[in-house]
Amino acid sequence: MMTPRTGAIRVPFDIRSATKMSEDELRTELAVHLYQRRKLSLGKARELAGLTVWQFTQLLGSRGITLNYDVEQFEEDLATLRRLGRL
């Protein structure tokens, strides 16, 4: 199994100090922002935030951010369920 490649995002200490946020909090804020702008999928955003899908969707809901789920994705999910014999 391949280990995912990681890279560091460097945030100057004075910036982090000004936000009064931990690295984890900054990572979560970045994940939420990128998800909201549709730059990251739910799975990748929750991975960046270090949260489970449930935790991340709860966080989004608490901020009034709707899930990025459109008609095309719904139709793909329906087709998958039909193919699996679940519908």
The profile of the biggest β sheet is: none
Range of helix content: 55-70%
Oligomer: single chain
Distance between the termini: 34 Å
The helix/strand class is mainly alpha
Strand content: under 5%
Helix-strand topology string: HHHHH
The count of DSSP E runs of length 2 or more, i.e. the number of strands, is: 0
Global mean pLDDT: 91
Instruction: Name the shape in a single word.
Output: elongated
- Please count the helical segments: 5
Number of domains: 1
Radius of gyration: 17 Å
Low-confidence stretches: none
Report on the architecture of this protein.
The structure is a single chain. With 87 residues, this protein is mainly α. It has one domain. Helix content is 60%, strand content 0%. The chain is elongated. The termini are far apart. The relative contact order is 0.09. The mean pLDDT is 91.
Question: Which properties best describe this structure?
Answer:
single chain, mainly alpha, 0% strand, elongated
